[in-house]
Amino acid sequence: QVGLWATVGLLVVAARGEGLAEAVGTRPGAPVVPPVAWAYLAAAFLLGFLIYGSLYAVTGAMSARVEDASQLQAPVMLVLMIGFFASFAALADAHGAIARIASWVPFASPVVMLARVLRADVPAWELAATSILTAATGLAALALAARGFRRSLLRTERVGWTELLRPGQRP
Questions:
Q1: Each residue of 65-120: pLDDT tens digit?
Q2: Cα 7 from Cα 126, distance rounded (Å)
Q3: Treating both helix axes as pointing N-terminal to C-terminal, what angle do 35-62 and 124-152 enclose, rounded to 10 degrees?
Q4: DSSP 41-97
Q5: Which of 14, 48, 89, 132 qualifies as a FRET site for 66, CA 20 to 30 Å off?
Q6: CA–CA separation, 155 and 22 (whole Å)
Q7: Whole-angstrom Cα distance, residue 94 to residue 92?
């Protein structure tokens, strides 16, 4: 599917008579994405995939039917959408209060910090600190997913988010 879209895009560029370099924005004065943004994009993708992949995996483990899965994934989707919408605030004002606060929220950090990196110079210590916090949250989400799989799949008892998050219970 991606190959199809790329082929159609190349055909449109060829039909317009532009070279590929002009079509993708390498004209003088075109915005250039800094290398730190490309590096952070790779890191943010991996960290975000770790967090949300783990949460969606535990959601699948906790559900017996498709209807249950759609109901259980609603909190995960809500958290993801809050980070998505906060990234628009970061694009508008990279040093604003919403952008700075959302950068430190691990569930929103992969999206919001990337928007901040694209719009302004973010200190290296802040990039490192939010990445470490996001990685720790990702590992906690992975542990939560393991707990959910042990409780739901291996023991065939269905649990909800409240039972899964309750401290002090053995998995």
A1: 777 788 888 889 999 999 999 999 998 998 999 999 999 999 999 999 999 998 88
A2: 40
A3: 20
A4: HHHHHHHHHHHHHHHHHHHHHH-SSHHHHHHHTHHHHHHHHHHHHHHHHHHH-TTSH
A5: 48
A6: 59
A7: 6
Query: In terms of residues, how long is the chain?
Result: 171
Cα 77 → chain centroid: 11
Locate 68 and state its tokens: 């249950």
- In sign, the C-alpha dihedral spanning 33, 37, 42, 45 is negative
Question: What one-letter code names the amino acid at 123?
Answer: P
Distance of alpha carbon 65 from alpha carbon 78, whole angstroms = 21
pLDDT > 90 fraction of the chain, expressed in percent and rounded: 39
Closest CA to 62 of 126, 156, 128: 156
pTM: 0.73
23 with 16: CB under 8 angstroms? Answer: yes
Contact status, residue 127 vs residue 118, Cβ threshold 8 Å? no
Cβ distance 53 to 144 under 8 Å? no
